[in-house]
Each structure stands twice: as structure tokens, then as C-alpha cells.
UniProtKB/TrEMBL annotation:
<feature type="signal peptide">
    <location>
        <begin position="1"/>
        <end position="22"/>
    </location>
</feature>
<dbReference type="GO" id="GO:0016020">
    <property type="term" value="C:membrane"/>
</dbReference>
<keyword id="KW-0449">Lipoprotein</keyword>
<comment type="similarity">
    <text>Belongs to the EcnA/EcnB lipoprotein family.</text>
</comment>
<protein>
    <submittedName>
        <fullName>Entericidin</fullName>
    </submittedName>
</protein>
<dbReference type="GO" id="GO:0009636">
    <property type="term" value="P:response to toxic substance"/>
</dbReference>
<keyword id="KW-1003">Cell membrane</keyword>
<dbReference type="Pfam" id="PF08085">
    <property type="entry name" value="Entericidin"/>
</dbReference>
<keyword id="KW-0564">Palmitate</keyword>
<keyword id="KW-0472">Membrane</keyword>
<dbReference type="InterPro" id="IPR012556">
    <property type="entry name" value="Entericidin"/>
</dbReference>
<keyword id="KW-0732">Signal</keyword>
Amino acid sequence: MSNTMKKFLAILMISGMGLGLAACETAEGFGEDVEDAGEAIQDGAS
């Protein structure tokens, strides 16, 4: 993978995390979002 592609993916991931954090109004909401993301990853892996 080229360096340009790696940089683009890193920026995309950081932007996504920033938007995700902005969407959560409380620490509890953030915890639920992380839990949901973990479950989605587990479902995709199995």
C-alpha cells in the first residue's frame, strides 16, 4: 500500500472518530457506541 493511501486512511479514521465523539453527548453514550462497534466487529469476524 502506498504512503499516500496510508495517510488518506489515517485521516479518514481520525475524522470518523472525531465525528463519533461529537455525536455522543455523554460518556455513557460514548461507552454504548464503543460497545456497539465492538459487537459489529465480532459479528463480522465470525
